[in-house]
Amino acid sequence: MTQPAPLPVAIVQHPPVFLNLEASLQRAEALVAEAARNGAKLVAFPETWLPGYPVWLDEAPDAARWDHPGAKELYQVLTGQSLSIPGPHVDRLRALAAQHQVDLVMGAHERRGGTLYNVMLFLSADGNRHALHRKLTPTYSERLIWGQGDGSTLATLDTGHGTVGGLICWEHWMPLARAAMHAKQELVHVAQWPAVGELHQLASRAYAFEGQCFVLAAGCVLSKADVLNGLASLGHRSGPAFEMLASMPGDAGHLYKNGGSAIIAPDASYLALPSHEATILYADLDPGLATQGHLVLDTAGHYARPDVFQLSVDTRPKEGVAFTG
User: Fold this and answer.
1) Which of 54, 58, 121, 218 is packed most tightly, with the most Cβ within 10 A?
2) pTM metric for this prediction
């Protein structure tokens, strides 16, 4: 039996240029190039890295006030800095993956009609394929800005190393979503978070063991200076949007997101320990460990009881209006 080749992976934990899509994409191009030079064949980014997680929802005192000028202006800025799929920015990400021959997983905001979605993009190393996952249920205050995904985007990417899939943030506490993804037989699961705190570490490690797969738990480092400088790079150095971000607590060095990214083996052990600085994490994954783990646990196979439990997943796109004729 031929021993499967190791899979070198990387998690990017650097901040984006907050709310600036073009500048963040340029930064992503440099970071992917660096990861590829260091041997990575799969590169993952955190939740909504393009162009940044909306930290004002948690931090700004007036973020949820009805008709608040700052909240409305920030939403306008974010909408203008979000991806259209398909679109030219996705084309650049596909070209980036192809240029460095890496499979790429990117978190982004998607603009679809008048609604924004929290999405995970999977881009193949040949640049010819991409898959999309829209977050099924925005969490708590996130519902102020994101719509709900549907079952049509429970996506995975088939690579030369195995199946790569992922879920976003609190989807990891949706038992049926986990069961659906386990049935896709992921070798690598990208768990995207704004930052990976202790509770998120527990969820990511539990997922690795439950799915007998490798988990790349990807979080971001983001300071108040990153936030204000990012908005200022778009020419917003005053006004309602800037004032709302400036109202968030802390000085310039205060961290709203402190990383915590980690790379986890199928037995829930760490291959790369949680880090809390702007960096790129690396590890070599041994696919044989996932195969060995299925000897004792395969929740979609010999450890399932379809005579007792069955899950039906509706993968049809859900549109509010259908034109026929």
Assistant:
1) 218
2) 0.96
